[in-house]
């Protein structure tokens, strides 16, 4: 059984050896050597080899005849091959002999082709080198001509296009080494030109701004109807923007310096008035911008330009310390600012991105804040209204100029409205001096008019409407003094001055009207009122002058509605408009008139006091018959003075004259009463009372004569009623009636105060007591003393009862 399995395994291994590649029989042979039947397998293998040998032998025997036949044929072919070889050798010899000429020609042709190739190569190399040399020559010419932007473009083309094509030649290497140096030279030269340009525009910004402002002024004068037409400068700017956009649309930068935004001659010929930009050659900026753009350093250039211009802006916006002294100082300041922003606006619209709108607006915001602050500071030092007005016009022109370039200027107009308050205060100060000068020069007397021409001259200055006066023949007098027409004319001049400031501020008629009315009210209520008070209160003002002041203020008060009409005519705003400010002139002149009236009353009383100081009563005089007494001299003089004074009051309003007359009479009565009750007068005789009674009768006679018209009946006598009843009580010694009727409305001595009567009795008691002692107790004197004591006792009881 084991031998069968072994035989089968050996058979399998043999088949595997026969069918397997010899490179892979290793494992198979190893399995044979690993087994125990090695000898048996070798026997099997030998038997298999013998079998295959027998098969090979059989096959060879089968094909042997064919092999013999093939050898025989091969031998035959050999002979033929020898013949063919001989023929080929002969042919080759003949061919070699015949080809020697051809080979020579071919060599010549080969040499010719090599030369042709060398020539073509040389031509090709020259074709690449010649443009390099030509371009380098052009570069040198451009550098000598200082045409740096085209030189830089040539340099770029030489470096990136021509030199790589030319190959590695020594001259190319030298050129390549020089390119960075040339580029740096161009960069430095362009920056130098830019610095020169910045310095130039800094120096000439004043002239640029002056030209721009003149153009704006010319445009405004030509366009008086304020129509929105394109400005000449804006039109020019539009053409330049189109040119720059057109030139930079293809390659992002101009083809030559002539296309770089430099203003050409044709533009100047098209305009009658040269533009502010025509004063500046902007080519250095454009050239430097394009050069740095090509160098890839545009951001560096933009930052440098903006930084330098910011520094220049700070210098321009710094005003001189004495700028406020003259208008020329303000003009130079504004010219420099306008020049600066005209340049920036031109750069904004003729370059793409060197400055942008946000940058310019930021600069303008900075400038606007500094301008407003500077103007507020320096204008506050100004006290000349003409200079303030000129400054306002200059600021308006400055604002209009920059507004034409698209800059917002509302803050400037707001500041002008603030300055209007200052302008109003300065005007008030000037008019205060003017009014005071007029008052100081006024003679406070009616104006004499001799001819119709003089009369018309005054009525043209002041709206006098007095039909009665017009009917009078010449010569005649106007009721007011020179102050009235002069003051009225100055009021109108003040209104015109306020109107001048309101012009060109883009205000509505209502706003202008409101501003004028408010300023005029300040002039009336503060300035003119103070001046009138000054004229009324100053020393050495006589009653005649005060009377004339009242007459003057009365006529000025009547002219207030003419002032209203005057303002309405120049502002075209009717006074009945809602919220319209009313003039306070009526109240102002009424207050002045009341002050003058009070001053008249005060002055008149002071004059009366001067006369009363001359009173010299003998309070201990003996009793005399009434026929033997005469009016005191001081009182005669006082009455004479009052009559002459009240005769001047004929032109005053009736109420004023009546009040003055009543006040004077009351003051006389009160003063005489005070003389009686003066504590320093301790004793009074009945004779002194009789003298005082005579003086009082003179006063009453003066009152009955009605020195001032308008009093009804004996109204003026009421001023002396207190003193009259007191003297009647003592001279008639009617104490029984006084004591019996005291407190009744029908009392004869209703105006006699018991305290006053008691004080006067005490003084008479002292006199009576002294007389009794001197008369050695005469019965009549003793009886009188007792009577006085009894009356005093009754008066004291009456006072006590009244008090309880």
UniProtKB/TrEMBL annotation:
<dbReference type="GO" id="GO:0090522">
    <property type="term" value="P:vesicle tethering involved in exocytosis"/>
</dbReference>
<dbReference type="InterPro" id="IPR007225">
    <property type="entry name" value="EXOC6/Sec15"/>
</dbReference>
<dbReference type="InterPro" id="IPR042044">
    <property type="entry name" value="EXOC6PINT-1/Sec15/Tip20_C_dom2"/>
</dbReference>
<protein>
    <recommendedName>
        <fullName>Exocyst complex component</fullName>
    </recommendedName>
</protein>
<feature type="domain" description="Exocyst complex component EXOC6/Sec15 N-terminal">
    <location>
        <begin position="44"/>
        <end position="213"/>
    </location>
</feature>
<dbReference type="InterPro" id="IPR042045">
    <property type="entry name" value="EXOC6/Sec15_C_dom1"/>
</dbReference>
<feature type="region of interest" description="Disordered">
    <location>
        <begin position="237"/>
        <end position="268"/>
    </location>
</feature>
<dbReference type="Pfam" id="PF04091">
    <property type="entry name" value="Sec15_C"/>
</dbReference>
<dbReference type="GO" id="GO:0006886">
    <property type="term" value="P:intracellular protein transport"/>
</dbReference>
<keyword id="KW-0813">Transport</keyword>
<feature type="domain" description="Exocyst complex subunit EXOC6/Sec15 C-terminal">
    <location>
        <begin position="411"/>
        <end position="763"/>
    </location>
</feature>
<keyword id="KW-0268">Exocytosis</keyword>
<comment type="similarity">
    <text>Belongs to the SEC15 family.</text>
</comment>
<comment type="function">
    <text>Component of the exocyst complex involved in the docking of exocytic vesicles with fusion sites on the plasma membrane.</text>
</comment>
<dbReference type="GO" id="GO:0005886">
    <property type="term" value="C:plasma membrane"/>
</dbReference>
<dbReference type="Pfam" id="PF20651">
    <property type="entry name" value="EXOC6_Sec15_N"/>
</dbReference>
<dbReference type="InterPro" id="IPR048359">
    <property type="entry name" value="EXOC6_Sec15_N"/>
</dbReference>
<dbReference type="InterPro" id="IPR046361">
    <property type="entry name" value="EXOC6/Sec15_C"/>
</dbReference>
<dbReference type="GO" id="GO:0006893">
    <property type="term" value="P:Golgi to plasma membrane transport"/>
</dbReference>
<dbReference type="GO" id="GO:0000145">
    <property type="term" value="C:exocyst"/>
</dbReference>
């Amino acid at each position: 059984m084991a031998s069968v399995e072994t035989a089968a395994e050996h058979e399998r291994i043999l088949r595997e050896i026969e069918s397997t590649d010899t490179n892979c029989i290793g494992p198979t042979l190893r399995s044979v050597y690993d087994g125990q039947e090695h000898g048996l397998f070798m026997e099997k293998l030998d038997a298999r080899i013998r079998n295959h040998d027998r098969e090979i032998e059989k096959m060879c025997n089968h094909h042997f005849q064919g092999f013999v036949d093939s050898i025989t044929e091969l031998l035959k072919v050999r002979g033929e091959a020898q013949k063919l070889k001989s023929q080929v050798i002969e042919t080759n010899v003949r061919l070699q002999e015949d080809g020697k000429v051809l080979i020579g020609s071919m060599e010549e042709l080969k040499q010719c082709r090599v030369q042709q190739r060398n020539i073509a190569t040389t031509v090709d190399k020259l074709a690449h080198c010649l443009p390099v040399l030509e371009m380098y020559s052009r570069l040198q010419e451009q550098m000598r001509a200082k045409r740096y932007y085209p030189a830089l473009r040539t340099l770029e083309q030489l470096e990136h296009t021509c030199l790589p094509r030319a190959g590695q030649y020594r001259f190319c290497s030298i050129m390549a080494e020089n390119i960075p140096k040339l580029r740096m030279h161009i960069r430095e030269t362009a920056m130098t030109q830019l610095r020169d340009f910045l310095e130039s525009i800094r120096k000439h910004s004043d002239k640029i701004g002056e030209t721009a402002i003149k153009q704006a002024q010319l445009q405004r004068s030509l366009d008086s109807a304020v129509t929105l037409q394109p400005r000449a400068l804006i039109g020019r700017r539009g053409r330049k923007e189109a040119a720059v956009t057109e030139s930079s649309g293809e390659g992002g930068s101009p083809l030559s310096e002539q296309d770089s935004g430099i203003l050409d001659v044709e533009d100047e010929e098209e305009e009658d008035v040269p533009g502010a930009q025509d004063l500046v050659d902007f080519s250095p900026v454009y050239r430097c911008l394009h050069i740095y753009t090509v160098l890839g350093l545009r951001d560096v250039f933009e930052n440098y330009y903006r930084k330098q211009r910011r520094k220049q802006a700070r210098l321009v916006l710094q005003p001189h310390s004495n700028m406020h002294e003259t208008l020329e100082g303000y003009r130079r300041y504004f010219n420099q600012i306008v020049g600066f922003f005209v340049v920036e606006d031109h750069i904004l619209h003729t370059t793409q991105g060197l400055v942008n709108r946000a940058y310019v607006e930021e600069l303008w915001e900075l400038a606007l804040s500094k301008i407003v602050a500077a103007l507020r500071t320096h204008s506050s030092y100004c006290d000349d209204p003409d200079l303030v007005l000129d400054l306002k016009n200059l600021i308006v022109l400055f604002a209009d100029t920059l507004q034409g370039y698209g800059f917002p200027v509302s803050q400037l107009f707001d500041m002008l409205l603030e300055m209007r308050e200052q302008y109003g205060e300065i005007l008030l100060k000037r008019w205060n001096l003017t009014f005071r000068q007029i008052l100081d020069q006024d003679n406070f007397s009616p104006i004499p008019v001799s001819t119709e021409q003089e009369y018309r001259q005054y009525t043209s200055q002041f709206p006098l409407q007095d039909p009665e006066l017009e009917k009078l023949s010449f010569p005649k007098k106007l009721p007011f003094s020179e102050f009235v027409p002069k003051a009225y004319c100055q009021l109108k001049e003040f209104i015109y001055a306020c109107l001048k400031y309101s012009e060109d501020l883009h205000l509505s008629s209502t706003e202008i009207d409101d501003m004028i009315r408010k300023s005029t009210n300040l002039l009336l209520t503060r300035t003119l009122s103070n001046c009138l008070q000054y004229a009324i209160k100053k020393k050495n003002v006589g009653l005649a002058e005060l009377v004339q002041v009242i007459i003057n203020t009365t006529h000025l008060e009547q002219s207030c509605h003419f002032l209203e009409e005057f303002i309405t005519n120049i502002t075209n705003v009717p006074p009945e408009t809602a919220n319209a400010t009313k003039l306070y002139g009526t109240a102002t002149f009424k207050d002045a008139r009341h002050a003058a009236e009070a001053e008249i009353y005060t002055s008149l009383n002071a004059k009366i006091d001067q006369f009363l100081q001359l009173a010299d009563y003998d309070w201990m005089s003996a009793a005399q018959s009434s026929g033997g007494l005469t009016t005191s001299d001081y009182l005669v003089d006082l009455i004479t003075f009052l009559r002459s004074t009240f005769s001047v009051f004929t032109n005053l309003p009736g109420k004023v004259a009546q009040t003055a007359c009543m006040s004077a009479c009351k003051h006389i009565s009160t003063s005489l009463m005070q003389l009686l009750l003066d504590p320093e007068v301790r004793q009074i005789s009945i004779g002194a009372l009789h003298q005082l009674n005579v003086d009082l009768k003179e006063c009453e006679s003066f009152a009955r004569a009605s020195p001032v018209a308008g009093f009804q009946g004996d109204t003026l006598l009421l001023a002396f009623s207190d003193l009259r009843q007191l003297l009647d009580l003592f001279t008639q010694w009617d104490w029984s009636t006084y004591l019996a009727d005291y407190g009744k409305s029908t009392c004869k001595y209703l105006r006699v105060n018991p305290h006053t009567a008691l004080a006067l009795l005490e003084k008479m008691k002292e006199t009576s007591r002294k007389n009794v002692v001197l008369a050695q107790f005469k019965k009549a004197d003793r009886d009188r003393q007792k009577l006085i004591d009894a009356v005093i006792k009754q008066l004291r009881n009456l006072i006590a009862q009244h008090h309880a």
